[in-house]
Amino acid sequence: MKDWEARLRTEARKLLEQGEIEYLIGFAPGSLKFTTTPLITGNKEDAGLLVINPFITNNLSVFLNETRGRTGIVAKGCDARAIISLIQDNQVAREKVFIIGVPCPGIIDLRKVEKLTGRDRDELDDITLAGERVTVTWDGQPREFPAAEVLRDDCLDCTSPAPREYDLLLGEEAHAGAAAGRGKSKIRELEALPPERRWDFWKNEFSRCIRCYACRQICPACFCERCFVEEAEPHWVSPLPAWQENLLFQATRIIHVAGRCVDCGECERACPVHIPLRLLTGKMEDIVDELFHYRAGMDKNEPPLMTAYQPEEAEDFIR
Amino acid sequence: MAITDISHRQKFLADGNAYLPHIAVIEKIIDETPDTRTFHFNFKDEKLRREFTFASGQFGEYSVFGVGEATFCISSSPTRPDHLEFCVKRVGSVTNALHRLGEGAEIGFRGPFGNSFPLDYLKGRNLVFVAGGIGLAPLRSLIWNAIDNRQDYGKIDIIYGARSAADLCFKYDLDAWEKDATVNMTTTIDRQDKAWSGRVGFVPAVLEQVGPSAAGAAAIVCGPPVMIRFTFPVLEKLGFSPEQMITTLEKRMKCGIGKCGRCNIGDIYVCRDGPVFSFAQIKGFISGEY
Amino acid sequence: MSNEGWEPKILGFLCKWCSYAGADLAGTSRKKYPANIRIIKIPCSGRIDPLLIIKALRLGFDGVLVSGCHPGDCHYQTGNYRARRRIAITKKFLEYLGVEPQRLQASWVSASEGDKFARVVAEVTREVKEVGPNRLFVDERLGSQVTD
Amino acid sequence: MKKIKKQELARLLQQWQADYTVLAPSRATEVAAMAEWDGKDIGFLEWYRNTVIPPKEVILPNMEELFRFQKEGAGYRLTAAAPEAKQLVFGIRPCDARALAIIDLVFQDTYPDDYYLSRRQNTLLVGLGCTRPCDSCFCTSMGVSPGESGDVDLMCTDTGDELMIEGITAKGKELLEKTGGLAEASPEDGSRRQEAIEQARQRITRHLDTGGIAEKLQRSFEDKEFWERIAAKCITCGVCTFLCPTCYCFDINDEKTAAGGGARFRNWDSCSFAAYTRMPAENPREQKWQRVRQKVCHKYEFYPRLFNIIACTGCGRCIRLCPVNWDITETLKSVPAPTTT
């Protein structure tokens, strides 16, 4: 990955220098251990700040509306799908973006690392991902674990770690979900419960929602200029963080992004109270696939799910 | 949990919980324009009705229970205390709910909040009122106040405009002021209109034509933000100093008592420190964000 | 809690070009159907938003019926096809959350199908009755938001 | 000063439970928050560094009922619930205790806020000094010592096997007096306590020079380019503000029932949201950079001008919980220095 990083810095600088792109969206080192932070810049000197590591967690496509000119953007497999989806929805013009693809080896879920090691992230010395193994060092002692134990659930389910659309690709290799499907085991468990137990589960999860809207704000598929939550007349959703309103908001949001959500898992990561939102987005991905054999952000020339139809489809529930 | 009935509290803010509304009854509804109504109201409680006092420029928080609260200035004058008035343009959920109410309906009222027009400063001066649209509502409290104490003030000029003839509020007041020989009333509308035989032009431009003198005067301005922005430069041209220009700001408010944060501009809270300000106080921030 | 004497409240979103007229026809031709349905006229079944459906459940309606023109008959060509996708997804998703599938229903009813409208309402009412009252969103603090 | 063996803490809290609803750090709802203590578990002494949900929630809940209304005939009847019973918060960190002292100022100002103040009066704060500050903590730069506090009623310091307990306020001292089963701390305990306090201070690695920050911000207020750059990566969610112990902004909303009843609530709100200031005709802070500027300036410029204290205690939540790692300390460091003109 270090090679990719060096190449990225050189290429990004060149692109800015040559005027190929006016802006660059990438990752810079974060201010805390094991974090990165979005870098949005028009300054070629900033290219030297770019990093590629297993902590490049943000889906940067959410920032594409921040820049006005042609924009270079660092994209993992899921980010590239989000960009494709935005292109399908006419939110971004293909010509406007220069996609610098990163064949993604998976992103580390720091909450999993914390659970596994019993240490908080800032008390760890080092985390290194190499292929199927991850080495975590604390108290000066390196310890090895299977990567699948600390990768994000959405990475475990990922079927397109390599960007499907790019103008420049860093490296070649990309492991397609070593443990594909593992990230959805909790969804399967939920499905097996009786309906009222499922409802109670969600009621409980959403009773701690504080309505900070981090899930919506971090989501590239949530691009509405004004969210239904903010409509004043009628007031569809009360701003009060009652579980009913929280669930009304989130359930509607997830359905609204059906066919656009690439299951990048960012909503779940951004949630400060750890509501397992991927149990919703992952399920929605399944529903869309099952009903319409559609997967979000796979082909920029495909019409978006919700604007398309086949005359004969999904009729059985209609009287 | 102990529950207290608070429907008939007889204490006002100073010694009561500032978040609890008093129940008031709508006594009369006047259609001002197709989307604007004036409500006459009074407190349900006899004692409150007698003891309630306020000053021109202060505002209240009005509740439609189950829908919420919205902020409106008290548009009637304290010199005419038999009832209170506020004026509402239909724009959001609370204002729509208010428009659905009929005479006799009960609403909640918290207030009076905020500062008021500086009567001590205004006394003895010529008053120039410049208002647009529903912006006349807060000023009319002061206008009637001045007219009812006519001997305390010099000349009174009123320049009032709206988008169209149909959008002019308080037509009954405009008529009264038109007839009042001690008031120089100028009414204007933005665009020519079949139903209108009077003056046409934007308020700031008409103000310039009327050209009131700044000597010993004070200008009180209220209207849509864009009107206010264009009015101050005209007043400056006419020789008004920033201290002589007074306005009342409209900001989104919830608590009305300087806590909830949304009307915050720098180190002031419009609800607590305003809504009445001189241009001298606000010129720093009116150029930028506000 | 006993459901004795309980009658479900069903909110119907009816396309004004077909199902709404169908409901009208059912009325004028004195077809009998359960009085459990409250009707909101929408410009096209394509207007249906999952928000409207979930909000209806949030308000305490026991069931929701969306009804539009038969495939191929949409006044706007494709509105009902789009609605169909949306409803299909919403139905599956709500089921996953724990909402009984009977609570969200859909039908194609044309302006001339007064009979069918009456039948649909009867069937939907019966199915919703079987699932029982919607207590999904009941507020422990304040009680129900259900309105008549 | 008194002391108690750490393993005896449960007995102490049980004693206090007789007179107070005792709240302590809990992970019962997935993320750490102050929650009603279960009467036995003191495992938090091991894992607790700080809560995710700031303890301001105990005084200013995210959903607080102000009063109820009920339609009766043509009119309404209003009812208000009496203030809650006395509560004791065990384990509040010095930064969060200071935060309450800071927002007291606004809730006491002009119109006293009955809800906030009565909860505040009914709540006894028992502080617990930090031993393992996070890498996002910068309390020492904000005048807070991670190991000690004057903003609580009682202050506990972890010296390894024991907790030193010191009465700070009269209320705290009185409780300490009444509390049985405590040993007197010796002078050696006192020096061990001092050592722990000093160690905690040393463990703070993040620093910020706040000298002249209000003036710098004031001068940079109109520097749109600077604020746009600062705001670029902010996604304007409410994480930093909702979880900030000194952010107190709120909204007021009604909830109604079918039977013509309902209640008015207040809930947290955030200046990060465009809807926060939106009016029908215009929004003074429609742009993202204006909202980011408001957040920063309110804490470091406006609040100090109003109350002579910065509305930040360096708890670091906004840094470690931010979904994009937007770091307030980096922003403040990059505010342009005043140019002499």
Could you name the key traits of this structure?
heterotetramer, A: 319 residues, alpha/beta, Nuclear Transport Factor 2, Chain: A, five-stranded mixed β-sheet, three-stranded antiparallel β-sheet, 30% helix, D: 341 residues, alpha+beta, 2 domains, eight-stranded mixed β-sheet, four-stranded antiparallel β-sheet, 13 helices, 34% helix, globular
Walk me through what this model shows.
The complex is a heterotetramer of chains A (319), B (290), C (148) and D (341). By secondary structure, chain A is an alpha/beta fold. Chain A folds into two domains: 2-107 and 151-307, no CATH class; 108-150, Roll (Nuclear Transport Factor 2, Chain: A). Chain A contains ten helices and eight strands. In chain A, the strands form two sheets. A five-stranded mixed sheet of chain A has the order 2-1-3-4-8. In chain A, strands 5-6-7 form a three-stranded antiparallel sheet, with no helix packed on it. In chain A, helix 6 crosses helix 8 (243-256). The mean pLDDT of chain A is 93. Chain B contains nine helices and 16 strands. In chain B, the strands form three sheets. A seven-stranded mixed sheet of chain B has the order 11-10-9-8-12-13-16, sandwiched between helices. A six-stranded antiparallel sheet of chain B has the order 5-4-7-2-3-6. Chain B is α/β, with parallel strands linked by helices and 290 residues long. Chain B has two domains: 13-113, Translation factors (Elongation Factor Tu (Ef-tu), domain 3); 119-248, Rossmann fold, CATH 3.40.50. Chain C is α/β, with parallel strands linked by helices and 148 residues long. Chain C has a single domain (10-131), classed as Lumazine/riboflavin synthase (Rossmann fold), CATH 3.40.50. Chain C contains four helices and four strands. Chain C has helices at residues 19-28, 50-58, 79-97, 114-131; strands at 10-15, 37-42, 63-68, 104-108. In chain C, helix 3 (79-97) links the parallel strand 3 and strand 4 (104-108). In chain C, helix 1 packs across helix 4 (114-131). The longest helix of chain C has 19 residues, at 79-97. Chain C starts with 9 loop residues before the first strand and ends in a 17-residue tail after the last helix. The model of chain C has no long low-confidence stretch (mean pLDDT 92). Chain D is an alpha+beta fold and 341 residues long. Chain D folds into two domains: 2-202, no CATH class; 213-333, no CATH class. Chain D is 34% helix and 21% strand. An eight-stranded mixed sheet of chain D has the order 3-2-6-7-8-9-1-10. Chain D has a four-stranded antiparallel sheet with strand order 5-4-12-11, with no helix packed on it. The chains are: A alpha/beta (319), B alpha/beta (290), C alpha/beta (148), D alpha+beta (341). Chains in contact: A-B, A-C, A-D, B-D, C-D.
